[in-house]
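hiii, so i know i said id send this last week but things got crazy w the move. better late than never?? heres the sequnce for the chain we talked about at the cafe, plus the structure i predicted for it. fair warning i was half asleep when i ran it
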Amino acid sequence: MTACPSGRVHVLRVISRLNIGGPAIQAISLTRLLEPRGYATTLVRGVEEPDEGNMDSLAQELGVQPLRVRSLRRKPGLHDLLAVVALTRLVWRLRPAVVHTHAAKGGAIGRLASLLAPGRRRRVVVHTYHGHSLTGYFSSGATKLYLAIERFLGRRTDRLIAVSEQVRDDLVRLGVAPTEQFEIVPLGLDLSRFDVPDDERLRRRAALRRQLGIPPDAAVVTVIARLVPIKRLDRFLRVATQLNSERSEMRFVVVGDGEQREELHHSPEAQRLGDRLIWTGFRSDIPDVCFASDVVILTSDNEGTPVSLIEAQAAGTPTVGTRVGGVEAVLEGPGNGSVASPDDELGLADAVRRILDDAPSAGAMARRAKRRTMSTFTVDRLVNDIDSLYSNLLSKRAAGAILDRASAAVERC
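okay and structure toks below
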């Protein structure tokens, strides 16, 4: 296997941008936490859009210094060719043992560069689908093109990782790759910030409510999401409007920012909710946001693994989500959370209503969900899974190289 001069296995990790969300958290965390296992990782990132936010603070906290490729951007364009050239040169110069790409754009550019760079038979190529954008995002023509690209690259990738069975099954159904080419590796997070004593939780709950101007006895329903079409904040606002007239003290909190900010702020539903609707923008104190909330809801049309629901459950806050992508993998099991179909806004409102109307049952649900979350979605488990996957793939590659050399020797005789 290829190793750095230090003797460590070199990994080139590629992600198109470190915008706020699960893929960036995972890419940064793996870069740092695999080091004690004998890996040296170069993390390549592109450029975020101005309203996406970024995870630079996490990178700084963990001592990770990503390598920025400015031509690697979210939106398609001629700059993509420059990104392919830049990454191809980087692969050739660094000669990593493993190229591991994350999410759609990073996966396409990074894997294509690995194919183009000399010496590809010596490299292991891995790609993680943190979700997918092959349905419901683009026009039919664009969808067909992107699906063809994924199928082409899928056949040339040593292992495809899906963050949930639901995501894998979607990709298999779409013909990206057969089931046996996938590995299920659930998201792993450092959830220690969300696990605090009850008295501290109550103190921080009260403090954030005071900061946001929320009465102590108000019921608070929160959504934590980027303000982009796939997250369907319009749906959240309609659900909030249904619930708004039922309680004298109720607040609806939106934590996040994005391209739809102005459109959503000026929507009829937002105008009707008035000062009961609180827009906070991106925040770094997500544990306190969860502590201050009575329900954390997700209203997306598609999800890989919803970080907001995992973090809410780790904080002991009841959760409601749409039945899409990997949501049910997070809310799995009886009584761990409530789900409804994306088009069932009455069902989403009713799920929130049941939580608010039955505090004992909601508390029991939150405790069950917390126990499962704190044992399932841990960063230690993620590091173990990825280390094991890399080791197995590298061992197979090394064994294959030995056989190739033996065959060549026999042919020369």
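btw The chain has two domains: 9-188+378-412, 192-376. thought thatd interest u
miss u guys!!
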